[in-house]
Fold this protein.
Amino acid sequence: MAITVVSTRGQVVIPVEIRKKLNIKEGDVLSVHIDEGGRIVLKSQRKKQVKKGIVEKTAGLLSDMEMSGMEYVESIRRNQSISNIKQRAGR
């Protein structure tokens, strides 16, 4: 449990270990309310991030290569096929 002190201006500091754990950054907006038990509750107003698919995660990754992404994928497939054939042949 962390402890913080209320300043003369009514401000409190959220301890660094809590900010790190909850990924709270400077400028983030938090809502504040009091629950039924009389506790102060802070909630992040950050929009939930949608998990990115593989396409979004890797977009632009191959942009500095001398071949297109499709050419790269095809070369991997060709090399994989050759490896599989050699393994089956006992090489």
Residues 63-89 form one domain.
